[in-house]
């Protein structure tokens, strides 16, 4: 595809954001100069970095010139190489897309984007930056920040100083005044700066930009009001604006970034509003994810998508369609960042588009799609290539009349085993092609033979062990009773294979506080027996027979036990708990029983009792934004070794946390993460308000279809290979992905690298094989095959990119990297790479005419927005009001997420509730997730996959309030009430219906929290000073 | 003068004491020349029907180093209300309560017939008895079932206020909490990890709540009904619970693969039991009752690995230093035994298995604490069941025949010192003026602790005469010994039994015949045997035999009448006549011979030998043989192969076995069924007679002997043949030219040969 197409022919969707700054041009030139930076050192250095996140030797630790420079205060002379010509071109003009008109994105996009009204465009820009400023301040101490800020301020202040459009006069001052920086250097500073500020900045900005939302604006304005430019520069050093505090209160809800709520009390806010409104970058001028999503839905939704073509780009994750496996794995299982790989490593390096696949091997498929076929090749086991061990699949080419086949991965020629022989037809295809799933489908399963089993023994059915913290708090809060009561009914619903009558899964019970209590619930017993293990230093399993039982058989004893547990400990006063020994005990139990399984641990406090895995409170806000911040995410103690043992024994650890203070999620969740378990966290758990959410999570988790004791191997055709794996996995070596268990929601993101030239004819083939034990205790191998195209044209690569998968990859790789690198570096890298990808596109694929425009490839239109969201996610943007645990928690969740989940997580769904069409069943159309979309008269529902917020504007219609809350007016809604009552009226029913729809298919149960007038929450973001900056250096 | 025999018997009946010498040589030099040391067998709690305990405290000598108890041998000045201690000669004032004392109004302790007297002391709190069952679950189903039944039965035999506890073990050790309703709860310990007492108490949660009880007074007041330990509960309260719990006991659920022994954590289980009692009830009477069905195979105290292909150690291995676990295991159990003994708790071992169970290593647990040791083939035998039942048997007055936490204090007059004791006791390290530097047995102390004892428990106590040759003893002077035994009666009363005896001194040079006549050869044989067995525990077998032989020869030289170098002239007086024969049989006994015995068996035999009273000990040394025939009433016959005649039924009692042996003819008659014919009813009676007699022995003995019914040529006849003196063997069968008797196929020397040699050596002038 030519860029022409992108830009012109099909430019409908081809956005070009040109951010114009006339006066800015004072600033602009410098920008342009900075550009060289990118051109000069950016690409090589940063591109390399990215790939090496995990690698300690990577350039990060010792930043490459490009990076370091940015880090170095401006004082340093521009070491930047001579600016490449291309770069320069950009800089002079940053451009708005054509339309300055707010609101009508579609139009704008369609418009070919003329150099456009600089005035308007400029204004917003400038406006945003001030807002950005304050927020950046907390985030980035280093001088650069200040620098950027200063540059940004140019804009911001411009408006402030000279409210007219003429910002120009303003700029120079800030720039030169304070810093006296040579323009070039300033620019240098910019790129990095740009990355930082955006997250907070944006959120603030978004608000600020909206005239509607004064409070926010204030915030942005905080610094602004009085101080002249110079002051601004100091601001960064200042403590974060008070405006953030409220967030702490909210920390419960997950979307940290989105949660910011500003107390009305915030002083000075309104005052500031006054200034900026006129000139901001119209947020609507930015590509709208909603539009993209809707368009895709319109184009492909509800249709049948057949996977019969190599390298075809699937519909977006948000689009519902029926997927028909015709030789390539469904995108539900395997989704790539691009469906056309660059032919050579050089090309790949040039584009710096990550070549990644997000594999969700056990993804749930809707009932309308066929479940996987099971293939049995008999005693000799699945047929595999002799050389590369790839499994028989559609990519195998049969030759010599069907007597041999050539492996599509390594080209090795193998004999066809006699039992498998079949003649070929006239096109060289086996006659039984369509009868055998392994020849015609992208995904299927093999029955494994004993060779694939642990110790060559057939596996035993897996077991679930419930391990309940019965310390004082849990007893008092009623949690123990809640769990026990729930289990009594829940155990009837253990997952089973479709064809089986009852579940083969056995269950066991352990309670613990400072010591462990095992229970013998053998069916022959009249009453359960409790066995106390006090030797927590060396935990062991006190019994074998009677610990893991079939629930059906032992029903009476188990029920008896569950009745008794709350009473047994009713008068406990033990408040200390242990943790590592609990996991150890569960693992030992499974080991002793020689089966794989899953532990359900319900825990509520930092384990401080004297035992292995004892943790201490190490939460330290002072570490934020320092190089040591990463230590907050690193586990304490020896949990890593424990995790390794668990994985080795097929023990998956599911953790339900009920913290009311710091719990060191980074350490406690580690085993969960490495063993493919799921982490749930309920802050300040209250029985009456939180139990529905918890119970729903528990039910869902318990019934999940999953595989145990799994090993995944990703094989590729020659020329490239899988180099890096991200997810809730454990890797003992570089190729085998080990998972104690893998369920339908867990996804592994794999990064590929070239090690040779690819072949355009054969394409790039991927085979993912997961060896696992099924719920009934069968050993199986699940195969997903996917073929991708290769091209020597970068445009092809760009055209087949999948932004959602890209974000998934970026998120995971960044979240992994923060363990070893300062957050700032990580953010820088993300920014750099995004910029580079886009720059490369512009340089190589886009129409050369649009010099000052930001040109986005069609498929990446929303990438900047998403990237911005990622950068602002609470994990990457550390702010003191976000509890460390929350960040660690989110980090861990995201690591295991599939594409659909990350999409929703990073770009939450925002639904206007006030305009419900009560007659139809349909969920109302989403709106862009941006603060400016909130209106005082409206009510909005925000969902990010972890929680939902109901936002009520101050002047929302009383009718709606009555309908939802059963109170006459807004003022009557108790600020305490955070849950929705169940009411018998159309509003309430409709809303419930919507909630259910959103909830279905999501792994975590979202608790609905209502926010009223006084409390405000800030949506993830959406507008784009940060982006703008991104583009500026393109 | 009544014969010495009568005197000895009288003394034994009254005081439970038998001395080797009843007239004492008056100087150290002479005493050493007597060869057999001056020593006694003391049965501290000998059952006496005619001894009502007195309800007050004993009067003690006021000298701090003496503290002897007022006794009939003391000189009393009734007017001055003074008494003189007969040990240290301290003059003491009678306490005020004795104000009315006079020649005609004497307190019991001054009356001569009360040389042994028992006081009931109301001091201190009374603690209930404690029984802690430690049960092996690695048993065959049938065995476990039998054991469970025995245990359940035993609950009904316990005093209702006794505290019971239950620990079960296999691969793991479980301490059961007994007071739970609705759910049975136990604490589980890994069977491979040795834990200190403190760790155990921490893990059982005893450390904190038990603090007030740590001082040894768990029950501050007798009426306080609830003991705060969850693991030890009064029988009457948890009777049902425990019965159910025992009923639900499962075999150890851990799989035992082919070719392996079950993993049995006996060492840890015992350690936990000891630790549990130590933490909760130190210094009170308690029994830890270990029931085990095999050797410890893991953890501290393991005796053998779990591989069946490596057999458990034999004497052969031990001699070759091939028993890898023995030393370590022994050390483990010794440590436990000492800890347990220090707290006054005793450990019983009931080991029932066909193979060895590690008694060799564990023996000290029972030996040092006065616990029982019972060895059987299976828990499902009457041997075990009845023996176990007999542990809880009651005496004539309806009291349990067991006492706890005894403290034996021995005082001597100044011419004597205490050399040591041999029996189920440990030293309390009470140094004092009457402690000799020369040790015999457990010495260096004048006090011993016996954690558990019954009316037959007998200690051997050895003395040394220290009076110098040139310091003559005043005319009519008598040497005195006082035994003071503090103990906890089974009724939980504290009691003190005081026995004071005195013997005349005699100058061995001038009055040797007196001394000779007062020799108690039975006591001497047992006392020497105990010394020998005690030595055998630590020395090589042959050395002990040589030592015994030398002692015997020296004794014969000293007391025999003979012409030098003329063996035929050798004569021994009546009071010595049986002694060589005892020694002959002792040499052949399993106490000194390990051949044909496993290490466990040797330990078992020796254990019992070191605690039984004189009669039983003699039976062990020289089994009793009775003959039943038509020729006359049942009669004891010589333990000799010559006694084995075809028309006789023999009944042999070796203490450990009761053998009924039908002579060849009798056996044939029985096979022919004559006993069933009315006309041969007398034959039926003849057959029945030994059975009845055997039954009588079986009824009373503890532990119950193995009952063997065999006949001429039967395989079990070996029990008889191995015991009798092999006067006829395949070597000399025809030399005797008689048909009587049965030849024994052995190369062992016969008594005749032994005596010949002895005479030769005794008269030899060379030695």
UniProtKB/TrEMBL annotation, chain A:
GO terms for cellular component: COPII vesicle coat; cytosol; endoplasmic reticulum exit site; endoplasmic reticulum membrane. Residues 91-104, 147-156 have a biased composition (Polar residues). Residues 923-994 form the Gelsolin-like domain. Keywords: Cytoplasmic vesicle, Protein transport, Transport. Residues 31-289 are annotated as: Disordered. Residues 459-701 form the Sec23/Sec24 trunk domain. Residues 803-902 form the Sec23/Sec24 helical domain. Residues 707-790 form the Sec23/Sec24 beta-sandwich domain. Its main location: cytoplasm. Residues 382-419 form the Zinc finger Sec23/Sec24-type domain. It is a peripheral membrane protein. One of its GO terms (molecular function) is SNARE binding. Residues 129-138, 158-193 have a biased composition (Low complexity). It is found in: Cytoplasm, Cytosol; Cytoplasmic vesicle, COPII-coated vesicle membrane; Endoplasmic reticulum membrane. One of its GO terms (biological process) is COPII-coated vesicle cargo loading. The keyword RNA-binding does not apply. Transmembrane segments: none annotated. InterPro entries: ADF-H/Gelsolin-like_dom_sf (IPR029006), Beta-sandwich_Sec23_24 (IPR012990), Gelsolin-like_dom (IPR007123), Gelsolin-like_dom_sf (IPR036180), Sec23/24_helical_dom (IPR006900), Sec23/24_helical_dom_sf (IPR036175), Sec23/24_trunk_dom (IPR006896), SEC23_SEC24_subfamily (IPR050550). It comes from the Eukaryota. Belongs to the SEC23/SEC24 family. SEC24 subfamily. This is SEC24 homolog D, COPII coat complex component. It comes from Zonotrichia albicollis (White-throated sparrow).
From TrEMBL, chain B:
One of its GO terms (cellular component) is cytosol. It is found in: Cytoplasmic vesicle, COPII-coated vesicle membrane; Endoplasmic reticulum membrane; Cytoplasm, Cytosol. Keywords: Cytoplasm, Cytoplasmic vesicle, Endoplasmic reticulum, ER-Golgi transport, Membrane, Metal-binding, Protein transport, Transport, Zinc. It comes from the Eukaryota. InterPro entries: ADF-H/Gelsolin-like_dom_sf (IPR029006), Beta-sandwich_Sec23_24 (IPR012990), Gelsolin-like_dom (IPR007123), Gelsolin-like_dom_sf (IPR036180), Sec23 (IPR037364), Sec23/24_helical_dom (IPR006900), Sec23/24_helical_dom_sf (IPR036175), Sec23/24_trunk_dom (IPR006896). Residues 520-618 form the Sec23/Sec24 helical domain. Residues 634-720 form the Gelsolin-like domain. Residues 403-506 form the Sec23/Sec24 beta-sandwich domain. Its main location: membrane. GO terms for biological process: COPII-coated vesicle cargo loading; intracellular protein transport. Residues 58-98 form the Zinc finger Sec23/Sec24-type domain. It is a peripheral membrane protein. The keyword Metal-binding applies. Residues 127-392 form the Sec23/Sec24 trunk domain. GO terms for molecular function: GTPase activator activity; zinc ion binding. CDD domains: Sec23-like (cd01478), Sec23_C (cd11287). Component of the coat protein complex II (COPII) which promotes the formation of transport vesicles from the endoplasmic reticulum (ER). The coat has two main functions, the physical deformation of the endoplasmic reticulum membrane into vesicles and the selection of cargo molecules for their transport to the Golgi complex. Belongs to the SEC23/SEC24 family. SEC23 subfamily. This is Protein transport protein SEC23. It comes from Zonotrichia albicollis (White-throated sparrow). The gene is SEC23B.
């Amino acid at each position: 595809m030519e860029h022409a197409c992108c830009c012109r022919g099909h430019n409908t969707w081809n956005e070009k954001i040109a951010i114009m700054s006339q006066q800015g041009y004072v600033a602009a030139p410098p920008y342009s100069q900075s550009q060289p930076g990118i051109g000069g050192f950016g690409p090589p250095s940063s591109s390399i970095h990215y790939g090496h996140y995990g690698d300690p030797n990577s350039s990060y630790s010792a930043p490459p010139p490009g990076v370091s420079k940015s880090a170095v205060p401006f004082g340093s002379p521009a070491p930047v190489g001579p600016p490449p010509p291309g770069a320069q071109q950009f800089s002079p003009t940053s451009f708005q897309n054509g339309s300055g008109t707010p609101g009508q994105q579609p139009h704008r996009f369609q418009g070919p984007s003329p150099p456009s009204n600089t005035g308007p465009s400029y204004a917003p820009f400038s406006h945003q930056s001030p807002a950005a400023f304050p927020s950046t301040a907390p985030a980035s101490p280093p001088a650069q920040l200040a620098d950027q800020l200063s540059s940004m301020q140019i804009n911001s202040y411009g408006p402030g100083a000279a409210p007219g459009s003429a910002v120009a006069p303003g700029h120079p001052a800030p720039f030169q005044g304070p810093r006296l920086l040579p323009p070039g250097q300033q620019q240098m500073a910019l790129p990095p700066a740009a990355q930082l500020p955006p997250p907070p900045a944006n959120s603030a900005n978004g608000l600020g930009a909206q005239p509607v939302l004064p409070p926010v604006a204030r915030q942005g304005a905080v610094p602004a009001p009085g101080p002249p430019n110079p002051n601004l520069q100091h601001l960064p050093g200042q403590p974060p604006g008070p405006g953030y505090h409220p967030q702490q209160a909210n920390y419960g809800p997950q979307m940290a970034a989105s949660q910011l709520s500003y107390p009305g009390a915030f002083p000075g806010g309104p005052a500031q509003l006054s200034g900026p409104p006129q000139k901001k970058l119209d947020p609507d001028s930015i590509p709208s994810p909603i539009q993209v999503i809707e368009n895709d839905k319109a184009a492909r939704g509800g249709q049948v998508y057949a996977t019969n073509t190599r390298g075809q780009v699937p519909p977006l994750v948000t689009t519902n369609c029926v997927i028909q496996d015709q030789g390539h794995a469904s995108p539900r299982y395997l989704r790539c960042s691009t469906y056309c790989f660059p032919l050579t490593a050089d090309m790949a390096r040039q584009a710096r588009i990550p070549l990644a696949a997000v594999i969700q091997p056990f993804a749930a498929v809707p009932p309308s799609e066929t479940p996987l076929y099971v293939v049995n090749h008999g005693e000799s086991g699945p047929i595999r290539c002799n050389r590369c061990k790839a499994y028989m699949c559609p990519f195998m080419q049969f030759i010599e009349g069907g007597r041999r086949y050539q492996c599509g991965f390594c080209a090795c020629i193998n004999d066809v085993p006699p039992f498998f022989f079949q003649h070929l037809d006239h096109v060289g295809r086996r006659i039984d092609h369509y009868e055998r799933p392994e020849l015609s489908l992208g995904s299927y399963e093999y029955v494994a033979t004993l060779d694939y089993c642990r110790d060559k023994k057939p596996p035993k059915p897996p077991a679930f062990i419930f391990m309940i913290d019965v310390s004082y708090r849990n007893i008092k809060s009623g949690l123990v009773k809640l769990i026990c009561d729930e289990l009594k009914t829940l155990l009837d619903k253990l997952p089973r294979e479709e064809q089986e009558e009852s579940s083969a899964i056995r269950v066991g019970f352990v309670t613990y506080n400072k010591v462990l209590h095992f229970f013998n619930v053998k069916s022959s017993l009249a009453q359960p027996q409790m066995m106390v293990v006090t030797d927590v230093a060396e935990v062991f399993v006190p019994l074998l027979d009677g610990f893991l039982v079939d629930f059906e058989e032992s029903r009476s004893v188990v029920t008896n036990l569950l009745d008794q547990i709350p009473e047994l400990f009713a008068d406990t006063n033990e408040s200390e708990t242990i943790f590592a020994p609990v996991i150890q005990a569960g693992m030992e139990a499974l080991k002793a029983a020689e089966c794989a399984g899953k532990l359900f641990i319900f825990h509520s406090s930092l384990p401080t009792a004297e035992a292995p895995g004892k943790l201490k409170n190490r939460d330290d806000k002072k570490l934020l934004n320092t190089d040591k911040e990463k230590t907050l995410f690193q586990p304490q103690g020896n949990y890593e070794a424990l995790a390794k043992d668990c994985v080795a024994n097929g023990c998956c650890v599911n953790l339900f946390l009920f913290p009311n203070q710091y719990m060191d999620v980074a350490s406690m969740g580690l085993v969960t993460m490495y063993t493919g378990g799921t982490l749930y966290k309920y802050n300040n758990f209250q029985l009456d308000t939180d139990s529905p959410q918890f119970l729903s999570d528990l039910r869902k988790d318990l019934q999940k279809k999953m595989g145990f004791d799994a090993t995944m191997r990703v094989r590729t055709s020659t020329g490239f290979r899988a180099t890096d794996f991200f997810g809730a996995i454990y890797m003992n070596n570089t190729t085998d992905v080990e998972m104690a268990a893998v369920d339908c929601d867990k996804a592994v993101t794999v990064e590929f690298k070239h090690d040779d030239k690819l072949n355009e004819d054969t394409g790039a083939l991927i085979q993912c094989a997961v060896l696992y034990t099924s719920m009934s205790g069968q050993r199986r191998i699940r195969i997903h095959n996917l073929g991708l195209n290769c091209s020597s044209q970068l445009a092809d690569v760009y055209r087949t990119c999948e932004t959602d998968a890209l974000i998934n990859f970026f998120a995971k790789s960044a979240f992994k990297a923060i363990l070893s690198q300062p957050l700032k570096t990580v953010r820088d890298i993300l920014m750099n790479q995004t910029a580079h990808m886009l720059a490369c596109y512009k340089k190589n694929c886009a129409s050369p005419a649009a010099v000052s425009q930001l040109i986005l490839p069609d498929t990446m239109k929303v990438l900047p927005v998403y990237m911005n969201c990622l950068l602002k996610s609470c994990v990457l943007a550390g702010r003191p009001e976000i509890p460390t645990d929350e960040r660690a928690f989110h980090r861990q969740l995201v690591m295991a997420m599939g594409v659909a989940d990350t999409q929703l997580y990073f770009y939450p769904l925002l639904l206007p509730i006030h305009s419900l069409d009560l007659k139809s069943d349909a969920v109302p159309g989403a709106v862009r997730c941006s603060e400016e979309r909130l209106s005082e008269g409206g009510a909005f529902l925000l969902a990010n996959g972890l929680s939902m917020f109901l936002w009520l504007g101050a002047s929302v219609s009383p009718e709606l309030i009555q309908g939802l809350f059963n109170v006459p007016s807004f003022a009557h809604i108790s600020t305490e009430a955070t849950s929705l009552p169940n009411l018998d009226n159309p509003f309430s029913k409709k809303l419930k219906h919507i909630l259910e729809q959103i909830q279905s298919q999501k792994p975590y149960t979202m608790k609905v929290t209502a926010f009223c007038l006084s409390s405000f929450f800030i949506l993830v973001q959406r507008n784009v000073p940060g982006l703008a900056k991104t583009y500026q250096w393109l | 003068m009544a014969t010495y025999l009568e005197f000895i018997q009288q003394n034994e009946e009254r005081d439970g004491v038998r001395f080797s010498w009843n007239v004492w040589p008056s100087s150290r030099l002479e005493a050493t020349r007597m060869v057999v040391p001056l020593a006694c067998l003391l049965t501290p709690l000998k059952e006496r029907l005619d001894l009502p305990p007195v309800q007050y405290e004993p009067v003690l000598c006021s000298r701090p180093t003496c503290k002897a108890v007022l006794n009939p041998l003391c000189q009393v000045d009734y007017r001055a209300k003074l008494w003189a201690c007969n040990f240290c000669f301290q003059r003491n004032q009678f306490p005020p309560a004795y104000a009315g004392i006079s020649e005609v109004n004497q307190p019991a302790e001054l009356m001569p017939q009360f040389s042994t007297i028992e006081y009931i002391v109301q001091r201190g709190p009374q603690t209930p008895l404690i029984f802690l069952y430690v049960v092996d679950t690695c048993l065959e189903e049938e065995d476990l079932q039998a054991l469970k039944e025995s245990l359940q039965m035993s609950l009904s035999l316990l005093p209702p206020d006794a505290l019971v506890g239950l620990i079960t073990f296999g691969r793991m050790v479980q301490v059961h909490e007994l007071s739970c309703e609705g759910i049975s709860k136990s604490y589980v310990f890994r069977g491979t990890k040795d834990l200190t007492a403190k760790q155990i108490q921490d893990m059982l949660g005893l450390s904190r709540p038990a603090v007030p009880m740590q001082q040894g007074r768990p029950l501050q007041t007798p009426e306080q009904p609830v003991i705060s330990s969850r693991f030890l509960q009064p029988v009457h309260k948890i009777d049902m619970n425990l019965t159910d719990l025992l009923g639900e006991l499962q075999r150890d659920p851990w799989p035992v693969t082919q070719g392996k022994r079950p993993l049995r954590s006996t060492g840890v289980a015992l350690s936990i039991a000891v630790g549990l009692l130590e933490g909760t009830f130190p210094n009170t009477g308690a029994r830890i009752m270990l029931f085990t069905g095999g050797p410890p195979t893991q953890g501290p105290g393991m005796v053998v690995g779990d591989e069946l292909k490596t057999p458990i150690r034999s004497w052969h291995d031990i001699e070759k230093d091939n028993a890898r676990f023995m030393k370590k295991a022994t050390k483990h159990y010794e440590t436990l035994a000492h800890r347990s003994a220090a707290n006054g708790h005793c450990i019983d071992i009931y080991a029932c298995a066909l193979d060895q169970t590690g008694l060799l290593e564990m023996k000290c647990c029972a030996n040092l604490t006065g616990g029982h040791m019972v060895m059987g083939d299976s828990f499902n035998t009457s041997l075990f069941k009845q023996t176990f039942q007999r542990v809880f048997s009651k005496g004539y007055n309806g009291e349990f025949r067991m006492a706890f936490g005894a403290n034996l204090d021995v005082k001597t007059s100044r011419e004597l010192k205490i050399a040591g004791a041999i029996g189920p006791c440990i030293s309390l390290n009470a140094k004092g003026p009457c402690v000799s530097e020369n040790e015999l047995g457990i010495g260096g102390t004048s006090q011993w602790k016996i954690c558990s004892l019954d009316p037959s428990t007998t200690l051997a106590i050895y003395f040394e005469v220290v009076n110098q040759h040139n310091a003559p003893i005043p005319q009519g002077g008598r040497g005195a010994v006082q035994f003071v035994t503090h103990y906890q009666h089974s009724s939980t009363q504290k009691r003190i039994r005081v026995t004071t005896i005195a013997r005349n001194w005699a100058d061995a040079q001038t009055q040797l015949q007196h001394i000779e006549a007062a020799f108690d050869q039975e006591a001497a044989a047992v006392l020497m045997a105990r010394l020998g067995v005690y030595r055998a525990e630590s020395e090589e077998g042959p050395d002990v035999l040589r030592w015994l032989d030398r002692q015997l020869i020296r004794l014969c030289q000293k007391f025999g009448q003979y012409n030098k170098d003329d063996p035929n002239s050798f004569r021994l007086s009546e009071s010595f006549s049986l002694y060589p024969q005892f020694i002959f049989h002792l040499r052949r006994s399993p106490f000194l011979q390990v051949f044909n015995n496993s290490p466990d068996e040797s330990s078992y035999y020796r254990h019992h030998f070191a605690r039984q009273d004189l009669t039983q000990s003699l039976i062990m040394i020289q089994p009793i043989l009775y003959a039943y025939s038509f020729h006359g009433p049942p009669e004891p016959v010589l333990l000799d192969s010559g006694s084995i005649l075809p028309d006789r039924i023999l009944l042999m009692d070796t203490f450990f076995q009761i053998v009924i042996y039908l002579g060849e003819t009798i056996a044939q008659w029985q096979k022919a069924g004559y006993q069933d014919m009315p006309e041969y009813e007398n034959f039926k009676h003849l057959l029945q007679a030994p059975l009845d007699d055997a039954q009588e022995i079986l009824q009373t003995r503890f532990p119950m002997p193995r009952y063997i019914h065999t006949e001429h040529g039967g395989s079990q006849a070996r029990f008889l043949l191995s015991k009798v003196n092999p006067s006829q063997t395949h070597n000399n069968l025809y030399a005797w030219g008689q048909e009587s008797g049965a030849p024994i196929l052995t190369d062992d020397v016969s008594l005749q040969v032994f005596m010949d040699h002895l005479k030769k050596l005794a008269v030899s002038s060379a030695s």
